[in-house]
Amino acid sequence: MTQDLDSKHRVGVYPGTFDPLTKGHLHIIQRASKMVDRLIIGVAGNVRKGPLFTIDERIDLVKTDIANMHDKYCEIEIRPFSNLLIDFASDVGASCIIRGLRAVSDFEFEFQMTGMNAKLNPDIETVFLMASDKWQFVSSSFVKEICSLGGDVSGVVTPNVESRMKAKFGLK
């Protein structure tokens, strides 16, 4: 069941693998939380991507790093999901799916996914938020690779995420 656009309780879903959560993700979460009354951060299981962190670890990372955002702008909830994104959004009563775009290369995939989601459920809109120029180059894949090779990722992830990544890679 989806919410009407004039509903006083607008629910948005910000989905992702968040493996790992980056400061770019946090910036999108902060901006998205100003647009809805309730923001659900959907942490995708997506084992096909070969995540570094388990789904429970990723949920914990998100919870820890958004702790100071709760109730600042809206209610924020974190939920795992492994079904179709559009079905997850419908199940939680969302009226919109929020997607972050870093570059033109992201747009083609997102455009196709938005079209398919609209076909599956035309009542749920997709909203694109452009990444700030400060975060456009940041991707979770790059962050994992840089950290695994002993590079400095402190500027693009929180200390919490950095220490957990270093532990995963056996680094100090």
From TrEMBL:
EC number(s) from the headed UniProt entry: 2.7.7.3
Identify one Pfam family in the record. Answer: CTP_transf_like
GO molecular-function terms, A-Z:
ATP binding; pantetheine-phosphate adenylyltransferase activity
GO terms for biological process? coenzyme A biosynthetic process
What are its cofactors? Mg(2+)
Domain Cytidyltransferase-like, chain residue ranges per copy: 13-145
Claim: Nucleotidyltransferase is one of the keywords in the record: yes
Q: Please list the residues that bind substrate.
A: 17, 49, 85, 99
Part of which pathway? Cofactor biosynthesis; coenzyme A biosynthesis; CoA from (R)-pantothenate: step 4/5
Binding annotation for ATP: 17-18, 25, 100-102, 110, 135-141
| Function text | Reversibly transfers an adenylyl group from ATP to 4'-phosphopantetheine, yielding dephospho-CoA (dPCoA) and pyrophosphate.
Checking HAMAP family in the record gives: PPAT_bact
Quaternary structure and interacting proteins, as annotated: Homohexamer.
Q: What family is this protein classified in?
A: Belongs to the bacterial CoaD family.
Put simply, this protein is called Phosphopantetheine adenylyltransferase
Q: What is the lineage of its organism?
A: Bacteria, Pseudomonadati, Bdellovibrionota, Bdellovibrionia, Bdellovibrionales
